[in-house]
Amino acid sequence: MSKSSSLQTRLLHAGKSPAYSGGIAVNQPVVRASTVLFANTAEQREMRSRRGSERIFSYGARGTPTTFALEDVLSELEGAWRTRLFPTGLAAIGMTLLAYLKPGDHFLMADSVYEPARALAQGFLKQHGIACTFFAADGLDLQAKWQDNTKLVYVECPGSLVYEMCDLLAISAYAHTRGALVVADNTWGSGVQYQPLQLGADVSLLAATKYLSGHSDVMMGAVSTKQACWSALNECCDAFGMTVSPDDAWLVMRGVRSMAARLQMHERHAMEIANWLQARPEVPTVFCPALPEHPGHELWKRDCSGTNGLISFELTPGTDDATVDRLIDGLTLFGIGASWGGYESLVTVAHMNKARTVSDWSKRGPVVRLHIGLEDPADLIADLETGFARLQA
Ligand SMILES: *Cc1c(COP(=O)(O)O)cnc(C)c1O
């Protein structure tokens, strides 16, 4: 840049070369970009010709060095070929189903899935000619529900709200003999405590909104695949312009660095509270796959390397809504809210009659879902004790 340029021009072009020499920072810089510049037209042509098959920094919508770094962390966690990032976990689910299914196809979805995934199958996908049948959360009716045009099996294990387990090894083996893909929602496992790709799934997706971010301040989804099904997903993402902000990617990266340590603490606290809840006379069932009483406990022992901060409990059948509200509304350490995976404790009512269609919850009591945070569990138990005292009021 020449000193003879006007101030207006110099303001735009100053400070573009690296501003420092010396060592390197521990963390990735945030690279914010829409436009990416090339040295000459030949380089631009070459980069454009390679970017379909290779990960090349060529335009902000296809990712930046900051988002690529996070993709690599996810691929490492999941044991995947590659990973794409999405603005939310739900966007990751939607794009995955659109990438692998077309009008006229049928897919099987587990009864245990996150409710908005169920709504997507029953609404938008159905309207666009993609049919879905729900199968039992344990997967035992999978073969009976198979159709000639079944192209994909979608599981969530452990399931949302009550953490049902399925035998993913067996489901994947069967689906593959029928030429179908297996997709798993791995939000519960965070890529740490459950490894769908190692258990035969072809695609593992998760809401990085939860434990990866870990601080309840960022939304993000991720889809990690084996090599054979990468290009269909990648092309669909590019066709729809799926991308995430590098600032958000940086925040998730910061969360990931402490995730393993946080998860161990969430697990320890949740188990303490689960054991305490099991001794309460008002609670017929505590849902947590790490409890020996849980129907999926043997599969959890085989397939999971731990549990997290999620536990749910059933109240005595017949307990009415106003009584459940009394228990929850006076809690001071549990925020009333959905989502989970932050450092803080949360409580919400799980409406199982709406959340499941294959299994029958009509005879069961109300279910309350807790996310146990990093607070001292003794304080959380004292808070819950006041809640149970209010039940008698
Ligand atoms: C929260 C959640 C999602 C969706 O994530 P968002 O980022 O909130 O869209 C998907 N699957 C499961 C199992 C979840 O718990």
Describe the structure.
It comes from Ottowia thiooxydans. Its cofactor is pyridoxal 5'-phosphate. Belongs to the trans-sulfuration enzymes family. GO terms for molecular function: cysteine-S-conjugate beta-lyase activity. Its EC number is 4.4.1.13. The chain has 393 residues and is an alpha/beta fold. The chain has two domains: 41-257, Aspartate Aminotransferase, domain 2 (3-Layer(aba) Sandwich), CATH 3.40.640.10; 259-392, Aspartate Aminotransferase, domain 1 (Alpha-Beta Complex). 37% of the residues lie in helices and 15% in strands. It is built from 13 helices and twelve strands. It has helices at residues 7-13, 41-50, 65-78, 89-100, 115-127, 168-177, 230-240, 246-257, 259-278, 297-303, 321-329, 352-355, 377-391, and strands spanning 82-86, 106-110, 131-135, 150-156, 181-185, 203-207, 221-225, 285-287, 310-314, 335-336, 346-350, 367-371. The protein has a seven-stranded mixed sheet with strand order 1-7-6-5-4-2-3, sandwiched between helices. Strands 8-9-12-11-10 form a five-stranded mixed sheet, covered by helices on one side. β4 (150-156), α6 (168-177) and β5 form a beta-alpha-beta unit. The mean pLDDT is 96.
